[in-house]
Amino acid sequence: MCIGMVGSIDCTLNDINVLDRSPVFDDIFQGQAPMLEYVVNGHMYKLAYYLTDGIYPKLSTFIQSISHPEGPKAELFARMQEATRKDVERAFGVLQARFAIVKNPALSLEKAKIGKIMGACIILHSMIVENERDGYIRYDISEFEDGDITRSSRVETDRPTNIANMLGILEDVHDKRLHLRLKNDLIENIWNKFGD
After folding, report:
1. Which residues of 66-85 are buried (b: 16+ CB within 10 A; e: fewer)?
2. Could you tell me the sign of the dihedral formed by the alpha carbons of 182, 86, 194, 152, in that order?
3. Phi and psi at residue 148, in whole multiples of 5°?
4. Helix 111-132 and helix 72-98: axis angle, to 10°?
5. Mean pLDDT over residues 72-83, rounded?
6. How far apart are CA 60 and CA 48, in angstroms?
7. pLDDT at 184
8. 64 Cβ partners below 8 Å, 6+ apart?
9. Residues with Cβ < 8 Å from 90, sequence gap 6 or more?
10. What is the mean pLDDT of the chain?
């Protein structure tokens, strides 16, 4: 059992290490992450979520795959989530192959420096890819959208930082009911878009 600012939460020593090393949580807890509002399956959410594997705790900002899916909706969700995670892992592998600093352990660096290094590597990689292309193609993003899209999300970057705001964010992040509702809403959303 871990004791947090909000009270007791269930987690393991591995969970503490994951959270301790994550600049994402620094930004979320300090109120520096962009403020989001988006709707999934008719429910409004205000924290971004990250696709993870089973080692991460069940927080409202982590959505794990379903290890033993039962039924077509759960199977489709697991397939889509795993495919997206693999895309991210491949992209990270490309960065590791191109930049030695990404491949080597960075435990001795400060989290802020790691974030800046990763950002710089991503920008450099994008510049290299663009330079190596035979001509620059401008894509019309509307061809990738499904039908008549109404924008149901909003992002703000100015968020007041105060202790009450941070406590509210901590409560939302550790809310297991919110985690479960988001996961179920994502399963339904994927089924409605890509299911039978």
Report:
1. beeeeeebeebbbebbeeeb
2. positive
3. -80, 100
4. 80
5. 93
6. 9
7. 94
8. 52, 53, 54, 56, 58, 183
9. none
10. 75
pLDDT cut 70: percent of the chain above it: 63
H helices of 21-99, in order, are: 23-29, 72-98
Tokens of 12: 């393991």
Provide the whole-model pTM: 0.62
Burial 125-142 (b: 16+ CB within 10 A, else e): beeeeeeeeeeeeeeeee
pLDDT in tens, 119-139: 888 888 888 877 777 555 555
The 3-state DSSP class for residue 196 equals coil
**26 SS3 class:** helix
Residue indicated by tokens 């895309």 = 87
Return the H-helix or E-strand segment holding 62. strand 62-64
